[in-house]
Specification:
Layout: E1 10-12, H1 13-22, H2 40-52, E2 64-66, H3 67-79, H4 81-100, H5 108-123, H6 130-142, H7 149-157, H8 159-174, H9 187-192, H10 199-207, H11 210-213, H12 223-226, H13 257-265, H14 268-271, H15 277-288, H16 297-309, H17 324-333, H18 336-343, H19 350-357, H20 359-376, H21 386-414
Antiparallel strand pairs: 1-2
Helix pairs in contact: 1-3, 2-5, 4-5, 4-6, 7-13, 8-15, 13-15, 16-20, 17-21, 19-21, 20-21
Amino acid sequence: MSTARAVPTTLPRGALVARAWAGLGDAVAPLSNAAGRPLTRTVKLVLDPLVLRPVLNPEFAAGAVAAEHADALVSRILDAGPVLAATASWFVVLKKERRRRWITDGNPQDLYFQRCFELATAHGGPGPDAADIAADVLEEVHGREGPTVAALRDHLTDPANAGELTELLASAWAARAPVAVTAMATSPFLATCAVAPDRALFGALVAGRAGTAGAVGLHRPGVALAHGLTSRDVPVRPELGRGASKANLPRPFDRSILERLFAPLTNAAQRAGLADVPTLVRREIARSAGPWQLADEESRLVVVLGRDASADLAGPPAGEPGSAAARLRSRWEREAYVHRVLRMPSAAPPEVRADVRGVREAYLRRLWARVHGRELRHDPVAFDQVWDVLDGVLRSVILDQRDRLRSALEREAVA
């Protein structure tokens, strides 16, 4: 007796993308890995936002795609074949011009993939004027570079500077004094900051140094660790550093001076307005010894506001309806992937379970990085920008967690 084979109701998104990509052939090899699949950055920077567009086509967003939408997903990628082939050709041209100019800063895929797609859409494949167009693009991307990672690394590792900078670090940390400020309640401002931010309340918190007061105890065993800002029991004085990797940055309080400045200096859009390297380094040394390892009271206050508003993410709801805490909690609870992971904690990939359980720590790390970057650009958070920053940080964490869950489920499905 024969048994009918069950028809799958969903198919792994990664497998569908790989099938479509294989149909494009060697023309997209510069955008592919050694196995012939699209590079992770190809999916993240080109296929998702520019071809599949899951925001407008939610049927393509999940890690498992309903069977009735599978052919449409494959067709969308295949239909984009000519522009993807042209994108790959432009990427080769830009990399060649990059090598000719001895440009080493930044990741070419991060910097050029979307620009190449724009060129492919506007011009098709590279023509006789391709070199001139590529030179213009590189000038636009790198021409207003400001300080570079290479210059930062050279400055920190130069023996002529390293001794003096090490002494500056030691003296800055030796001069740290216990915080002697009375704590202030942040709940009145957080209660209405999403809809009617109160300038006077925010100003009073800044004047009363509520951000600095909120740093009390960070030097005690386990406190900064519980906030997710360090992997150590107690934060220690940073090193100057010799190298950094954006994919493997330590937690904020564990970073070297080079690692603290690395991410902002790899963002071409941000670094044009930054100070010169020696000034950046000296300011970062001083900043590392301050409360919350930040320099400005407004920045410290925003971290304290975020710490207080995000408390509900890791425990039972306590915020008043309409408050920042309640709104953040509501956004988090609306996420389908959160419910999915919590329903199947033992079946979910370990890294995904850790993401959901550690959301508050991830939130505080992202918030610290956000306000640190604004300090470097001299762009303090104003009273009427606080909610946008707090909410935007959670959105960013959620998007990252969604991507990791989808990738993990796709890997499991393929396996």
